[in-house]
Amino acid sequence: MRALQSLLILLGTYLLIILIDYLQGLNIWHSFYSIKQYFTVARGEDYFLLISFMLIFLYLIIFSAIKNRQPPSS
């Protein structure tokens, strides 16, 4: 279940990047280039969304690890 949530966050972040690129007048397929080329042409909001995703992803991993350590309460 956690993997599905993480994948949905990744997909949502990537769709936001595509939408912002499209609104800026770039080709809609512009974001499907290689990672190296993508980071070369990325703008500030693209980096913001990528960093936001990484922070949310790390939060989910750490939160689920802490939650699994605690004994179940009855």
Automatic annotation (TrEMBL):
What keywords sit in the KW lines?
Membrane, Transmembrane, Transmembrane helix
Entry-linked InterPro entries: YczF
**Can you tell which superkingdom this protein's organism belongs to?**
Bacteria
User: A Pfam family this protein belongs to?
Assistant: YczF
Q: Which residues cross the membrane?
A: 7-27, 47-66
Protein name (record): Uncharacterized protein
- Tell me the organism: Peribacillus simplex
